[in-house]
Amino acid sequence: MSPLRLLADNDTLVERFRRVRNRSTALCTHLSVEDMMVQSMPDASPAKWHLAHTTWFFEQFVLGADAGYRPAHPEWHYLFNSYYQSVGPMHARPQRGLLSRPGVAQVLDYRARVDEAVSERLLSGIDASMLAVVELGLEHEQQHQELLLTDIKHAFASNPLLPAYIARLTPAESQATASLDFIAGREGIIEIGHDGQGFAFDNESPRHRALLHPHALANRLVTNAEYAAFVHDGGYREPSLWLSEGWDTVRRENWCRPLYWQDDLASEFTLAGVQPIDPHAPVCHVSYFEADAFARWAGARLPTEAEWESAAAGLPVQGNLLDEQAFHPRAAARELGPLQMFGDVWEWTASPYVSYPGFRPLAGALGEYNGKFMCGQWVLRGGSCVTPREHVRASYRNFFPPHARWQFMGIRLGQDR
To answer: pLDDT tens digits, residue range 388-404?
Structure first.
């Protein structure tokens, strides 16, 4: 490769690095210093911590690969390590909201210093192995951009004043929902998993064969109106619809509606505060337990991840994603074919989060990224309205425990044929 071509490639990488990193800080422009410290539950993290942790990742795994590098704040390693046990101990996740120091200004200065050092490193030239680490760091940053928004939404919803992150939701074109139809899926032996083109997390590999039985998937996501019918029909009071652990959760947590629906069942909390529920928009902030119960009530089931990926493969990654700045799910267009496969809400599948045949985690500390969480969680597909467009793809496997619902999580129905 010529030096000119190498320089051009490095310039492009630096531009991407700066663009992704700048988006994280831009998402915080709507937040006060006080907002950026709040932690509303153990599963969430303060916005300040998200900014610091993603910076720590680049400092630890990119700059720290140089034996001569000396961090300006080595004591912060303990504060902003998340779960990488092999690189040292970390502050307890449920107590991240107690970290009033370092302050927001110090964290932003930390980001600026690390960004400058990483940019210089990229411009000086890196090998293929370090390029893979940088790309992983950028994808990791984009995951935290989504988490930053869902965590602050939960925090604001926990405030009796129900404050808004943005002044208003971007209005969508008024339209009725596309009619609910089922599209027959492929049958027989197919291949799923990442095809080797571009970036993928290790849990998307290796590509392998899967057997699909006769089935069909809904052409669009379940709407608020359809889910409201389940609520009004007593779905949360009928134990026969629920998995045993799900029914225990419903009773213990007093669930009777999706997470952010208000008591009147006509309004919901959004990133723009309390807004009327759009009956045509996808229902969101429901757990796996709720998705499974609704599917059973509707005489259907949830898709498997192989069925979902088979339907999504080859489709362009377009839809209501973070790039549209809608910050909330929108009604499906009245079009033919599978709709809303990407964006709006992450779609629960009937598949447990387990390794693919022949899976091997990354070597070293970065091998802790995905593999060690393959227990007690379920796969979601497709991205949401706060997922960056360039971050998601047909083979992408998100995962959460079955009771989780603070993410933008929704439902697509499947059925046997």
So the answer is: 999 999 999 999 999 99
